[in-house]
Amino acid sequence: MKSILKKLTLFRRKLFFYVIWPLAFKFASKKGIDERLFVFAVNKNYTGLPDNLKEVYDYLSAKGYNCIVYNSPKSSAKRIFADIKFETYYARCKAVFLNDNFDPVNACKPNKGTKVIQLWHACGAFKKWGYSTLDLPWGGKREDMLRFPLYNNMTDVFVSAESVISSYSDAFRCSERIIKAYGTPRTDIYFDSDFVNSQREVLLKEYPEIGERKIILYAPTFRGNSPEQSYNDNTLDFGKLKNTLGKEYVLVFKLHPFTADKFKLTDEERAKFGDFVFNISDMKIETALCAADILIADYSSLIFEFALLNKPMLFYAYDLNEYEHDRSFYFDYKSFVPGRIVINNDEIISAVENESFRMNRISEFRERYMGACDGNSTKRIADYAII
After folding, report:
1. What is the CA radius of gyration of the chain?
2. Are 281 and 260 in contact (CB under 8 A)?
3. Which CATH superfamily does the domain covering 193-370 fall into?
4. What digits encode the pLDDT tens for the residues 282-329?
């Protein structure tokens, strides 16, 4: 039975990828390109219009362009008709903006006069993705990735610095010529000092119990070899951390969207640690980063944005060997990260108490991996799309 279902699923995917979507695209193409139409396509793993796409959407909408947001439905039944409708927009738009892989674009080469612009959902280049993960436990199977090509119809890819171009070329299996260091729209906000300085108060309005204490932000990426299998370990000892750091600091969690709904303090933990541990996963990431005094990261690309704020980072890499085996990195982790690596609670406490953060690494890291981010990335990219 499983074999039959697998064959039916494969047949349906082939039918849409190679027949139905191309036919819908070809039919709609007869109407020609609408120079004022821009499409923002979001796959089913996202809700609403995320970060980079929203910045460009707002910019182009303010200039009077016709901007359409396409959110791919999570329901397979609804997606059948919705994706066909998307092809009619794609066939006629001036540009389609993506922030991830998107099969309805992969199935059809854009018409002359249409740009397919990839605004990847992360800055820099850290853990591997896309074609870079072929034959690794993480991600899709080689057979599927080659049968249904990924990222194959992009005309432009925008990145945060020249130094990461080769990594994106490897991940997307595309020419380096289409990759441009124009910056990352989501980073523009970090160059607005009024915004940055206001975000602690925004956080305190939601969590006034924090008071005058400094904020340690714990923002790990998810574990698991696919979004569907994602999870988070919690190896932090709340009791030990509170006993040693609780007078001067609080610990706030900002979890990856794939796992944010899976973490909650138990009633017992809330009674013991509710004045020290706060789950702020429902708040905007820019608020969390700007409000934080210290970031505890692991393998998350948030470190690139946080580097723009010139604040201390710790890297809690308790499962580094396992993560390297399953996912791997574009650079040597231990020499790459701009901060001290810690592997247990005692090392976290020691680093915080002694302010042992290796701040001298941040400036060079920021320049090397975020050098094209200057507060004007949105305008630069949107103006390019209009041409």
Report:
1. 22
2. yes
3. CDP-glycerol glycerophosphotransferase, C-terminal domain (3.40.50.12580)
4. 899 999 999 999 999 999 999 999 999 999 999 999 999 999 988 899
Beta-carbon contacts of 387 under 8 Å, excluding residues fewer than 6 positions away, are none
Say if residue 1's pLDDT is above 80.
no
Reply yes or no on whether the pLDDT at 196 is more than 80. yes
Phi–psi pair at 377, nearest 5 degrees: -65, -40
Domain extents in the chain: 21-184+374-386, 193-370
- Higher pLDDT, residue 352 or 143: 352
Per-residue model confidence as pLDDT tens digits over 258-288? 665 667 777 788 889 999 999 998 899 999 9
Tell me which residue of 236, 198, 227, 270 sits closest to 100, measured CA to CA.
Answer: 227
Q: Tell me how far apart the alpha carbons of residues 83 and 105 are, in angstroms, rounded to a whole number.
A: 10
Superfamily grouping for domain 21-184+374-386: CDP-glycerol glycerophosphotransferase, N-terminal domain (3.40.50.11820)
Reading the block at residue 226, the tokens are: 């696919």
**Tokens standing for 151?**
């990222």
DSSP letter for each residue of 254-296: ---TTTGGG----HHHHHHHTTTEEE-TTS-HHHHHHH-SEEE
